[in-house]
Amino acid sequence: MRATLVAANWKMNGSFASNREWLRVFTASTVSSEVAVCAPYVYLAQVADALRGTRHASAGAQNLSAEAPGTATGEIAAEMLLDCGVRWVIVGHSERRSRYGESSGIVAAKAARAVVHGLKPIICVGETLHEREQGRTLAVITAQLAPVFDACAADELAACAIAYEPVWAIGTGQTATPAQAQEVHAAIRSLLSRHDPGAASQTRIVYGGSVKPSNALELFAQPDVDGGLIGGASLSVTDFISICQSADRAAN
Ligand code: PGA
């Protein structure tokens, strides 16, 4: 049985003062799903420290370098994230693929470096509206995941989560229907299964794209949807707690 995972993606938002309040309210709530709070680099130690005493929640980064520590000005290595108490790291978010030119090869190298060092990557994949309309959703996702399958061994894949985030649903208010999400999640699981049946049953596949308190339960109730990656709605701690509680309910 896969434990449900809900990850907050704060993106480039937050301040020490507003984070403190968010973390105070969150740590006082009752959530039993596993939770990753993915914050900007400069706030990771704050988030990790605040979540240290909780049972299921830990800090996550939104990116890392594919390289070892050394001469890479402005980059952050896996070792440094671990040193801050970080457990999770988002790789290949569509904003990084489209705005910062991250290829699927780079994303796979980042995922492999993260997992080898004991971080748990959340590997994002997803099609644009144009690609969906052309009937290319599965081809796009297959191509995005192929280098990950080459770079990670089966036991490493089981430690990763895959986030299906249709680009047309991110930050748009337009959520994939539960049936659309389930169809793609099942297809991703069958790709995993062709690569390694053990990993297929263990790897969590979470959905991201305009998840909010009103649609979370239906999405998380789908058999191959193992939780969510939450952007905009994670900035409100009450909305995020409500989404986590939907994940708790869907898991029961
Ligand atoms: P959203 O973002 O929930 O605001 O659509 C999700 C994401 O980008 O991870």
What's this, in brief?
The chain has 252 residues and is α/β, with parallel strands linked by helices. The chain has twelve helices and eight strands.
Note the topology.
Layout: E1 5-9, H1 16-27, E2 34-38, H2 44-51, E3 57-61, H3 78-83, E4 86-91, H4 94-99, H5 104-116, E5 120-125, H6 129-133, H7 137-151, H8 154-159, E6 161-164, H9 178-195, H10 197-202, E7 204-208, H11 216-220, E8 227-230, H12 237-251
Parallel strand pairs: 1-2, 1-8, 2-3, 3-4, 4-5, 5-6, 6-7, 7-8
Low-pLDDT runs of 5+ residues are: none
Helix and strand element order: EHEHEHEHHEHHHEHHEHEH
**Total count of strands:** 8
Query: Helix tally?
Result: 12
Structural Rg: 17 Å
Strand order of the largest sheet: 1-2-3-4-5-6-7-8
Distance between the termini: 11 Å
CATH class: Alpha Beta
Tell me the β content.
15-25%
Helical fraction: 40-55%
CATH topology: TIM Barrel
Largest sheet: 8 strands, parallel, barrel
CATH homologous superfamily label? Aldolase class I
The appropriate CATH architecture is Alpha-Beta Barrel
Bound molecules: 2-phosphoglycolic acid
Overall geometry: globular
- Give me the secondary-structure category: alpha/beta
